[in-house]
Amino acid sequence: MRTFIAAADAGQFQEAAADLSVTQQAVSKRIATLERDLGVRLFTRTARGVQLTIDGQAFLPHARGLLRAEERAAASVRPGRRALRVDVISRRVAPAALLRDFHRAHPDTELDVVTLFDADAAFAAVQSGMIDVSFRAVTVPASQLPDGVRTARVLDEPHQLLTGPRHELAAAHAVTLAQLVGHRIWIPGIAPGTEWATYYDDLAAAFGLTIDAIGPNFGTDHLLDVLADSSTLASLIGQQTRFLWPDYYDLRRVPLHDPTPVYPHSLIWHHENPHPVLATFRDHFRSRSTGLERPDAGTWSPKWASRQATP
Amino acid sequence: MRTFIAAADAGQFQEAAADLSVTQQAVSKRIATLERDLGVRLFTRTARGVQLTIDGQAFLPHARGLLRAEERAAASVRPGRRALRVDVISRRVAPAALLRDFHRAHPDTELDVVTLFDADAAFAAVQSGMIDVSFRAVTVPASQLPDGVRTARVLDEPHQLLTGPRHELAAAHAVTLAQLVGHRIWIPGIAPGTEWATYYDDLAAAFGLTIDAIGPNFGTDHLLDVLADSSTLASLIGQQTRFLWPDYYDLRRVPLHDPTPVYPHSLIWHHENPHPVLATFRDHFRSRSTGLERPDAGTWSPKWASRQATP
DNA sequence: GCGAGCCACAACCGCACGTTGTGCGAATAG
DNA sequence: CTATTCGCACAACGTGCGGTTGTGGCTCGC
What we know:
Order of helices and strands of chain A: HHHEEHEHEHEEEEHEHEEEHE
Shape of chain A: elongated
Radius of gyration of chain A: 27 Å
Largest sheet of chain A: 11 strands, mixed
CATH class of the largest domain in chain A: Alpha Beta
Oligomer: homodimer
CATH superfamily of the largest domain in chain A: Periplasmic binding protein-like II
CATH topology of the largest domain in chain A: D-Maltodextrin-Binding Protein, domain 2
Helix content of chain A: 25-40%
CATH architecture of the largest domain in chain A: 3-Layer(aba) Sandwich
Strand content of chain A: 15-25%
Number of domains of chain A: 3
């Protein structure tokens, strides 16, 4: 690719070869094999050099794009001045949507999204600088956080009931938490000890629900498959969580109220982290999260959630 | 890259090696050299396979992007179902802006923009299917077009005078063509025999202007440099043509009137071209170009331009 | 018509990359 | 606690890819 671009820029193989510190014959060979692999002629050879064919012209910007992509890939792991590295608990839940929102507002900033095993790993990674910011629920009080780590509540995500069409509550316009008592709720794929498991454990304990928050995870497809067929099993899903399922599954989202359980997402960062984008990032979410410290009357969140301040 | 992605997906080198039809040792070596080149560890080795590090997680989407870019690059020259290939007379003038407009309206369609030597080459390329559509001024009547080739006028681009700050006409709010008589107009970088040269020749002949449409082309920078310093030399520039020049050049755009010379851009395509995007493309510009067949009273365009129909 | 400039083909060669063979550590079963 | 399995890393080795040198042919300009 580099050879192709150099030759296209120079208009001749000799000069390109000099730029690349190889012989003209090597450039000729490289272009020949590239043309053979692609199955088209990229240059027309003339007596005074070479000229791009139409195919070559069409190919050139893609070749440049490839080198840019390579550069970005290398930059993503380069220590110092890499893209802002963000940890989210899952790529499907609300924080991922917030990230897309941020990206729309700041299209020039580069983000790398990763997912760590649990909150402890996230705290350690934030403190060490391996990641710059994390979206998590924070279950421990500020006094027990690692040194220099700050948190701020940025989003309360209401939960809804997710059922198949034959479920008893499928047709309800809204359901209270009390109505869920006795129904089996299944939320697989959540590792024990994570803040997700804590949240659902606390929710189940507070209202006497039956929530299987942990258990074998055969993938989202399997969960949806079982829900679609079951008349007794339901699941909980964040209001902004995007699952894609086929229409014929006919799954239903039923709002919860009295109270509505909300999941408290916080921003986690190190206050000495010098990354230039971090301040922009925090400002962006600070402007979108006011009043979260005062619990809404109609909602429920765990006790540990109310100990977190907003930015 | 492929090896890295395969290993990340499989979670172990053995299986990745099987997928790639190489030995486990080869995969191990490839990953090791990739890690050495990048200077970071991408996997943590465990007794039951490997797991991505944070750096590995951040790197993974970039690696996938690199392969997608490679795929797009190869597709750009693959005969059959490649991106719509569009020829423009220059990447700086109005059609390029129209293309960006189309791309905004249809973000999913892929475009490859190329620039052919002259209109004859464009006609031949359109007829042979090497390119799908061309933006050009058409100087020949429809009866003399190659078989199956259709044209449609889509944009009239008004021209302006471009001068340096010390030029006699620099401070004028507007200038008539009659006022330009006797002034030297210099438009380098236009090959003789092209439709551009024809246009400026006709313009000069119609109003008795002095236009050097051809001549040595030392690049845009040189033209701007000369204009900025000269009190006698000016150039013509399309109203929508985007040149970037430093502020201290202090160049002026002076509108022309009585009449305003407009450059007639046409769409050129082959009516049997089966490319799926071509219809969308023509529809897009058809809706944006009404009434061009009736010449505006205050404008001038060459005689051959009025022979072209709108889509 | 001749030299200059540039690309393609041929022959040669070194090293990078894949192979086979082996060792080691961790997890699992008995 | 030991035996076995599983998966990765290191070492030695050979082949082929990709570089080099050498040369010929084509076109353009003086």
